Amino acid sequence: QVQLEESGGRLVQAGGSLKLSCAASGLTFSTNVMAWFRQAPGKEREFVAAIRWAGGGSRYADSVKDRFFIRRDNGQKIVFLQMSSLKPEDTAVYFCAARPARAGNIIMEETTEYEYWGQGTQVTVSS
Fold first, then answer.
1. What would the mean pLDDT of 107-121 be, rounded to a whole number?
2. Stretch 39-54: mean pLDDT
3. CB contact set of 104 (below 8 Å; sequence gap of 6+)
4. Are 64 and 48 in contact (CB under 8 A)?
5. Who wins on pLDDT, 55 or 32?
6. With 80 as the cut, is the pLDDT of residue 56 above it?
7. DSSP labels for the chain?
8. Over the range 80-97, which residues count as b (16 or more CB within 10 Å of their CB) and which as e?
9. Which has the closest alpha carbon to 96: 110, 116, 76?
10. Nearest to residue 38, comparing CAs of 126, 115, 124?
11. Sign of CA dihedral 34, 84, 20, 40
12. Which of 9, 49, 57, 78 is deepest in the core (most CB within 10 A)?
């Protein structure tokens, strides 16, 4: 059974930094494209960042580019999202997601392309 468990969300002041973690179990991980999405109240879930297999590169939403950094530790089966220069509009529940291995080493931004999801962790940025 695949499980993705996010942690690290909390209340932080604008301009601050935060590091989210997602621990995976039940999947190969090293051959899964991993991603972070977020969902603010009353809004649709949106793509934040994704990372390919080892050395394969990453992609970011324009709204977080140059402020957020995604990386993965295949040995520990953890994907991280380092967030800096946080803004109130970054407030949301952040979800970790994994594409199925059969999908290959391709980053997609649509939620429907991700088969496995965590329960989410709340990030609140105060002004």
1. 97
2. 95
3. none
4. yes
5. 32
6. no
7. --EEEEE---EEETT--EEEEEEEESS--TTS-EEEEEE-TTS--EEEEEE-STTS-EEE-TTTTTTEEEEEETTTTEEEEEE-S--GGG-EEEEEEE--GGG-S----SGGG--EE---EEEEEE-
8. bbebeebeeebbbbbbbb
9. 116
10. 124
11. negative
12. 49
Cα separation, 107 vs 34, in Å, equals: 8
Task: Give mean pLDDT, residues 89-116.
Answer: 96
**4 closest CA partner among 78, 75, 73:** 78
Give the residue-averaged pLDDT of 33-40: 98
Q: Dihedral through CA 67, CA 25, CA 3, CA 90, nearest 10?
A: -10
Q: Which two tokens stand for residue 28?
A: 């190969």
Convert 51-75 to b/e letters by CB count within 10 Å (16 or more is b): bbbeeeebbbbeebeeebbbebebe
With a CB cutoff of 8 Å and minimum separation 6, the contacts of 63 are: 89
